[in-house]
Each structure stands twice: as structure tokens, then as C-alpha cells.
Design a protein that fits this description.
Elements lengths: L1 E5 L5 E5 L9 E3 L3 E4 L2 E3 L2 E3 L5 E5 L3 E4 L4 E5 L5
Antiparallel strand pairs: 1-2, 1-9, 2-4, 3-8, 5-6, 6-7, 7-8
């Protein structure tokens, strides 16, 4: 389980079940356990106003550099 936080204010945005190694480029919606973000149309924002991603349907395309993460990933 990974915790994804805002890079500006460090508030918690998502609890996400990451599978496999590599960068976080997109968050698949079926793997998001808890969602603390704010949706403004297709834009996904932190409560501080920082844009962290764009909702494209089955996944959220993340904006690199606007979030940090910690935790472990599951092996495939």
C-alpha cells in the first residue's frame, strides 16, 4: 500500500495499491483504496489548490513533480 501526498502542503491525497516496480504515471481507479483529493471536472486537485492529475476515465494521469509517495509495492 502506498500513500500519495501533495508536494506543496504534504496532505494525504490517495491510498493506492501499487503493483510492480517503476514510476507512478497513472493511478488505476480500481486500485485506489482511499481518495482524499478534490475533483474539479477532469482535474484532480489537492485541497491547497495544487493540480496533481487529470481524470481520463479508467485511470488518473498523474502530473510528475506535484506529488510524493511512500510505502511499498506488491510484486507481480
Amino acid at each position: 500500500m502506498m500513500v500519495i501526498r501533495c508536494a506543496k502542503c504534504k496532505s494525504k491525497l490517495f491510498k493506492y495499491h501499487k503493483i510492480g516496480k517503476g514510476k507512478i504515471l497513472r493511478l488505476w481507479k480500481e486500485r485506489i483504496k482511499d481518495d482524499y483529493s478534490i475533483k474539479d471536472g477532469a482535474t484532480v486537485k489537492c485541497p491547497c489548490g495544487n493540480i496533481v492529475g487529470i481524470d481520463t476515465g479508467p485511470f488518473i494521469k498523474m502530473k510528475q513533480g506535484s506529488f510524493t509517495f511512500s510505502g511499498t509495492y506488491a510484486n507481480k
